[in-house]
Amino acid sequence: MSKTLTSDEMVVILREDAGDHFSFLTSTRDRVNEWLARGDGIAVYQNEDLGSRNVGARRFVSFGSHDAMIETDDPTRQMPGARGEITWRYQLEATYRGAPLVFVVDNPRDLRQTSKRSDLRDVVDLWWSATLDNHEPARSWGSGYAQEYSTDHGTRSIVLWDSEELRDADKCVFLIDDGDTVRPYYVSGHPADNESLWLKPFPTTIHACDECGIEFTEREEACDSCYSRKQRNGFRPIEFGTWSLGPRRAYHLKVRRG
Q1: Is position 184 within any domain?
Q2: Cβ 58 vs Cβ 93: under 8 Å
Q3: What's the pLDDT at 218?
Q4: Residue 108 covered by a domain
Q5: Is the pLDDT of residue 250 over 60?
Q6: Angle subtended at Cα 52 by Cα 47 and Cα 58, rounded to the nearest 5 degrees
Q7: How far from 46 is each of 8, 18, 61, 65, 178, CA to CA, in Å?
Q8: DSSP line for 30-55
Q9: Is 226 helix (H, G, I), strand (E, B) or coil?
């Protein structure tokens, strides 16, 4: 006989099912709360086939109204499924029906929660996807979580949290495609723990001194010994001669915000 869960017990099951995947936990929480808000319940099914490599895995199914997956108040013992789908492994473990679940999803990879820098502004969540080879058609793909942020200097930079699938990622150029523009980024930082990549856009606004020709990110009047005076004023000279051209690999990351 299946168990009737309290809200706290339901939250524990959701957390166990998601593990460290905070984004999966967030989306699951939001989905089941939609069911609960319209008065439906949650049926928890668990894979009980000891011969399955996914034994213990859970599935969540709505029940109750005509909008639910199971249009009755009593969920079936075996999980229903589409024609041809193997569902006999999944047996009813528990049910919950009550108020929406309210709990905070901790994200250990959120700059808003973990960064000690005081100059980060306007942090925005990003989700990226990319092909991981140069075959046509592509044979492998990757996706992950990132965040975009501003600093006191106004530059919009990116931290890639999920970069394990990207080969030689710290030596690559990244083309960030938001659907409107494509802009090249370089790796400005790569922590020793290999858990993140910090990206900055290639400088695109370059000005040269009228007298000596040294290039700067902002324009000033021509001057004597302009390098030292501009450096004192905080204008960093751009020297492309020291940049490594012809990277071994470049990744085209398609991103969406939110």
Answers
A1: yes
A2: yes
A3: 47
A4: no
A5: yes
A6: 25
A7: 19, 14, 11, 22, 39
A8: HHHHHHHHTT-EEEEEEE--TTSTTT
A9: helix
The answer to whether 226 and 219 are in contact (CB under 8 A) is no
Range of the domain at 63: 3-96
Q: 3-class DSSP state for residue 117?
A: coil
The answer to the question of residue 16 being in a domain is: yes
pLDDT digits (tens, 9 = 90+) for 19-32: 766 667 878 888 99
**Per-residue pLDDT for 196 more than 50?**
yes
Residue 106 lies in a domain: no
The pair of three-digit structure tokens given for residue 205, joined into one six-digit string: 């606004």
The pLDDT-based confidence of 225 (bands split at 50, 70, 90) is very low
Neighbours of 128 (CB within 10 A): 23
Show the CA angle centred on residue 114, arms to residues 110 and 120, nearest 5°: 80
Domain stops at, among 96, 127, 160: 96
Cα–Cα separations (whole angstroms), residue 79 to 18, 41, 88, 139, 229: 20, 14, 7, 33, 74
Which pLDDT does position 118 carry in this prediction?
57
Let me know whether 184 and 170 are in one domain.
Answer: yes
59: which 2 tokens? 């599935």
